[in-house]
Design brief:
By secondary structure, the chain is mostly helical. The chain is built from 6 helices and no strands.
Length: 136
Amino acid sequence: MRLLGDEIDLRTLSPLTLAFVGDAVYDLLVREMLVCEGNRPVGALNNDKIAIVCCENQAKTAARLLPLLSEEELAVLKRGKNAHAMTVPKHASKTDYHTATGLEALFGYLYLKGDIDRVRELFELGLASENEAQQA
């Protein structure tokens, strides 16, 4: 289920368009997670959000999720990763930026497809894997 029920042909959307939507989806998931952890000043919430959604962390999340993706999901991630973005932020490596774009394309694709359960599952698996990696 999506917020808007308009019909859309996902095959017609470019990987950067999928990433445009996926960026917002991923950002909203992180914001909701942080707010659910407890009430804090907005500045602190925003700083924590920025640390989680940065290109480097999204690239690491994408790498951890790779073995869990279906062929269809992997194809979307690769299309997003290989898309030609016009600019790369100064604070990000080109590789991390493209990998993060792939992850965002995947989240955008799944959201627009209406597969919210899979969006949640991959988000939670990515965070669980991150927590395990930090504890190791």
